[in-house]
Amino acid sequence: MSIRIRFLPHPKGPNWSAGRIHNSFCTRQPSFRSRRDRVVIEPGVSCHNCKFCYQGRYNLCTRFTFIGTGNRPGALCRYIAHPMHNCYKIPQHIGLDDGAMCTGIASAIHACKRASLDKNSKVAIIGTGFMGIAIVLTCKMMGIKNIFVIEHIQRIDDVKAGIIQLLDLFASIITRRGGQIVAVNPKPGAIAAKLDEVASREIDIRGVYNVGQ
Fold first, then answer.
1. Which residues are within 8 A (CB) of 105 and not within 5 positions of it... i.e. 6 or more apart?
2. Buried b (16+ CB within 10 A) or exposed e, 161-182
3. Which of 19, 50, 104, 200 has the most Cβ atoms closer than 10 angstroms to its Cβ?
4. Alpha-carbon distance 194 to 90, whole Å?
5. Rg of the Cα atoms in the chain
6. What's residue 70's pLDDT?
7. pTM greater than the 0.85 cutoff
8. 128 plus 71 within the same structural domain
9. Considering Cα of 93, then 94, then 96, then 97, what sign does the dihedral take?
10. Judgement on whether residues 95 and 129 belong to the same structural domain of the protein
11. In a domain, 213, yes or no
């Protein structure tokens, strides 16, 4: 007798909002009063029991998981189970489509906080996708006027070095001495740096992963 094991499709979709919630939300969470309350979610799930979670930096939790990736199903389905403390009620005047973008906008705000920007900062943003545009809008809301946006470039030909990668471009050309580079959710192997350029120009490099405190 042979047994065939079939794996169900793995749903994708990390960013979502919901128009109807389970009854248990109304009984356990005072902010939810009706099953028709609409919610937006934080897709990252942490253990809430490590030092990073206690510090409020749950995105650095060693057991941090993201819905739609790994072994946690995403939101491209009719029903989904998600921790109650990762759900936030949204007002009626905000649509579900707009609510689904809250996670990306929160990541942009976290990136600007990590960069310690103020209205006198000069900001160069590489990438014109959703995250790049969200960071531009966040900078404008902070009153920053000197914003430069560059289309994403994988590799650039350089007369002396041949081919340099994205972070090298920032370190040697764009970033001023004593400035800083903030890498927002970079893909593995997408960036590399010449540490001698970074060190000699005293450039700080900061990473941003998902949504912070």
1. 134, 137, 138
2. eeebbbbbbbbbeebeeebbbb
3. 104
4. 45
5. 21
6. 67
7. no
8. no
9. positive
10. no
11. no
Bin 27: left if φ > 0, else alpha if -120 < ψ < 50, else beta: alpha
pLDDT for residue 72:
74
Structure token pair of residue 37: 């309350």
Judged against a pLDDT cut of 70, whether residue 99 lies above it is answered with yes
pLDDT tens-digit readout, 111-165: 898 888 888 988 888 878 888 889 999 999 999 999 988 775 554 444 333 334 5
More confident residue, 103 or 134: 134
Instruction: Locate 213 and state its tokens.
Output: 């405190």
Number of domains in the chain: 2
Q: Domain of residue 87: give its range.
A: 2-107
> Could you tell me the two tokens for 121?
């900062």
Classify the phi-psi angles of 146: left when phi > 0, otherwise alpha if psi is within -120 to 50, otherwise beta.
Answer: beta
| Count of C-beta atoms within a 10 Å radius of residue 127 | 16
Torsion of CA 49, 51, 55, 56, to 10 degrees: -40
